[in-house]
Every structure is written in C-alpha cells, then in structure tokens.
Amino acid sequence: MLVRDACPGCGSTQFKKNGHIHSGKQNHQCKACGRQFVASAEERIISDEQRTLIAHLLRERISLRGICRAVGVSLTWLLHFMVEHFAACPDHLHVQLPVRPTAVVIRQLEAETDELWSFVAKKANKQWLWIAMDAKTRQVIAFPMGDRSRESGERLWAKIPAVYQQQATFYTDLYEVYKGVIPPAQHKAITKKARKTNHVERFNNTLRQRVSRLVRDTLSFSKKLANHIGAIKFFICHYNLAKAAALPV
Fold it and tell me: Is the pTM of this model over 0.85?
C-alpha cells in the first residue's frame, strides 16, 4: 500500500478532497497542478504468468470485464495491455508462405474467400470482414475490414501475398464483386454444394465462437473500429502460428 502525502504529479502538499472514485475510495485534487489522485494507492505487480494468461484470455470468448474479475486486474490496466498487444501484431499475420517452385511438379495453390458480418458501437454501423484462406494449410493469408463494395474486395486482393496472386486458384461464392476483383483465369465461383469454401466458412464459425466481439447478440461488442480490427488480428496471428506448427516439416 502506497500512502501519498503529496501530489504525485508536481509534489505539492496543497490538495483537497474531490469526491470518490468508482471503487468508493476518497479522491483528491492538487491545488497547484489540478491532478486527481487517491491518497492510498495499491502498488500491485502483475507477474509474467498472469500477463501470459491474460493474453490467452483475450483470444477466448470472454468479455474484458470478465477477464478483470477472473484475474483481478483493473479495466484501465487491461485496456492498455490489450492495445499494446494488438499493436504488436505483424501485418504478415505469421503466414507461412509456400516456397517458390524449384521443381517441375509443385503443389497447386488453392485459396478460399468469404465475408463475415460484424458491427462496431451499434448494429447500424456494419463492418464486413473479408477473409482469404489457404485451402490446404488453413492459414488466413489476408483480411481487410470494410463494407461489401468492390473497393473492399480490391483491398482484400491487394493484401493477398504475391505468390498467391500469381499462382493460386481462388474459390468464392456467387457474390458478383469477386468477378471484377480476382483475375478470371484464377477465379472459380461455386455454390455451397461444391464444398470448395467449407474451410473458410468453418473458420467464420470459429471466429464467432472464440472472439466475443463477433457474437451476433452480445454486450461485448467493440466501441472502436481500431480495437475491433486489433482483436481479430490478434486472434488470427495466434491461429496461423498454431496452424504453422502443425504443418509437416
């Protein structure tokens, strides 16, 4: 327990009582600089084991306040921890790209694409998640967030690694936007009965089961688009690492 007899900002001993904080503790305000603080602040050190656990919980279908209750951290600390980890996710999503062909016979690259509906702040603010997945390795090779327009489809194509743009066959549903985005020679628009997009559709279900922000009826929805994208990216990076570890050497 840290007992303060001076302002932690400027060191002034001239401060006054200023209501109570959310936990009921007496709040104070410095007369010199105006900073607010509590006189008895708890200095709690969060161990590396707890941080690892919290990182795992952020990839599960549990609300932020649920993590706070389960681990015993404050919401303010968790929000800073969350944003820091989201920002550390690489743009390449930990995708293990296929080696460029050196032999006559090579593995034919196949990819599946689909869209997933979500929202930010309110259901009227629709956000569509466009996903491209390697059909064999099941790794997510690219994803942008946007609406269902051609511009969003072009953003998906721009994010797809060059080796897939040059060599892969892309299977999609019958949504018209794909026809103007993916080169015709590489595009196969099929129905669900063909079962050529079942992997990416199953992954959509995985996202809804594991990322609470994507549940259709939930109180854990995102308030900010940046955190919405960050949470999805954080999960996909870990998902790709797990898939890469399972690939044969």
Answer: no
